[in-house]
Amino acid sequence: MESAKRRSLIARVLPRREKRAFGAIEIYPKRLRFLTQNPGEVVYILARAHVIVNLGWAFRLAFLSVVPLVGLYFMDYLQLGIGFVTDELIALIILVYYLMLAGSFIMNLMSWYYDIYLVTSERIIHYDFNPLTSYHVAEAEIENIQDVTQSTIGFLPNIFGYGDITVRTASSKNKFYFKAVPHPVWFRDVIADLSRLIRAKEP
Q1: What are the sequence ranges of the domains in the chain?
Q2: What are phi and psi of 176, to 5 degrees?
Q3: How far apart, in whole angstroms, are the C-alpha atoms of residue 93 and residue 121?
Q4: What number of other Cβ atoms are within 10 A of residue 123's Cβ?
Q5: Three-class SS string for 71-93?
Q6: Contact by Cβ (8 Å): 49, 55
């Protein structure tokens, strides 16, 4: 359980509840509970990758969505046809095609939305969610954090302001990654400051 003094110090780092980067970062998220949450454990930040990372698959699906329309247009314009393929069969094939695109859209969106990072009063947690395939959870004690670094590489990350955070801890040889999170410099500083505050012994 946090003491009043610690809450006051943490409020200097995270002064108020807010959302940033179209909801990709939530400070003091409302009504958030997770399965392994300990009594008194406070969730400071919920984060996910910047929304711009969805552009790749979104453009790909948009392109694929117009392919049948273009194909039908040219078949009609050139008066092409396949004798054994009826209009009903073509309609069924197109329906199945668009259902597959819709399924791909939903799975990609869910993969982004539910692939989240949590920063709490006790640890940092990554929920890696892949629809219908896997669900992986990684965590590290926040008081064991030794080093936090940030990198922003590439045209889009520099334009839209997102990057990767690497966290090294004393208890694990593995590194903990926050990938493509918005405001990476701010994120790095907040994690480092919270780690120092939580690690500090109160008088």
Answers
A1: 4-49+115-199, 55-110
A2: -110, 125
A3: 53
A4: 20
A5: HHHHHHHCCCCCCCCCHHHHHHH
A6: no
Class of domain 4-49+115-199: mainly beta
Instruction: Quote the CA–CA distance of 188 and 183 in Å, as a whole number.
Output: 9
Beta strands in 7-97 (DSSP E): 18-20, 25-27, 43-48
pLDDT for 167-192, tens place per residue? 998 765 668 899 999 999 999 999 99
The angle subtended at Cα 185 by Cα 109 and Cα 32, nearest 5°, is: 45
Q: What length is written for the chain?
A: 203
pLDDT for position 83? 57
What integer pLDDT is reported at residue 81 of this predicted model? 58
Helix (H) or strand (E) holding 197: helix 184-199
